[in-house]
Amino acid sequence: MYTPPLARLIEQLQKLPGVGPKTAQRLALHILKRSDADAQALAKAIIDAKKQVGFCKVCYHLSAEPVCEICRNQNRENQVICVVADSRDVIALEKTREYRGKYHVLGGVISPMDGIGPEQLNVQVLVQRVNHEKTKEVILAISPSVEGETTTLYVGGLLKPFTKVTRIAFGLPMGGDLEYADEVTLARALEGRRELD
To answer: Which end of the chain has fewer CB within 10 Å, C or N?
Structure first.
């Protein structure tokens, strides 16, 4: 149906998360309509990102430098570490502009079904970091899935001897109706309740 080079491009685009056959076809055709310079700039950006972006040696967030911008920032609170599963979570939390501490990216969650145990995650380096840096508080900001809960309990248990361990509250989204919320969400909303200001 497609000429082989176009078919290969569509096939590669389909490997991206959330990109199905129709979206891959639309993206491929769009790329072909662009100028040679635009196509080369896209290819170069992909290759440069793949070559240059790695992990911060302190927090394991994505970085083109050995130590990421957040870890280097002297204005951030050094005694508080927010533990997340993935760099996407760091980006989401940074968008709120509410959190001013440091981060630690685990690199996933414990998932025995997928063959991911604590050994595959950045857990031991977190324990060493918390102990070494005399951290005052660790905030666990891991999604409340079964795997996320397992990870939260495991990491929390390891860190409790060294520091105060808290977790973010989960509950109802703005504009959400109680009648449509599931039991776990409602239970978390009740647990995370606080006094009115």
So the answer is: C
For residue 11, CA distances in Å to 23, 44, 74 come to: 11, 19, 45
* Residue located via tokens 């690199």: 107
* Relative orientation angle of helices 21-33 and 36-52, to the nearest 10 degrees: 120
Q: Is 82 helix (H, G, I), strand (E, B) or coil?
A: strand
Mean pLDDT over residues 133-155, rounded?
92
Helices (H), the chain: 4-14, 21-33, 36-52, 69-72, 87-96, 124-133, 146-159, 183-191
**What are 78-122's pLDDT values in tens digits?**
999 999 999 999 999 999 888 999 999 999 999 999 999 999 999
Tokens of 146: 């079964």
The two beta strands, 137-140 and 101-105, are unpaired
CB neighbours of residue 115 within 10 Å? 7
The DSSP-derived string for 92-107 is HHHHHT---EEEEE-S
Residues 100, 75: Cα–Cα separation, whole Å = 8
Please, are residues 141 and 82 in contact by the beta-carbon 8 Å criterion? Answer: yes
Given the structure tokens 């995370």, which residue do they identify?
192
The residues, any chain, with a CB within 8 Å of residue 127's CB and separated by 6 or more, are: 158, 159, 162
Beta bridge partner(s), residue 63: 54
Q: Are 28 and 18 in contact (CB under 8 A)?
A: no
pTM for this model (two decimals): 0.82
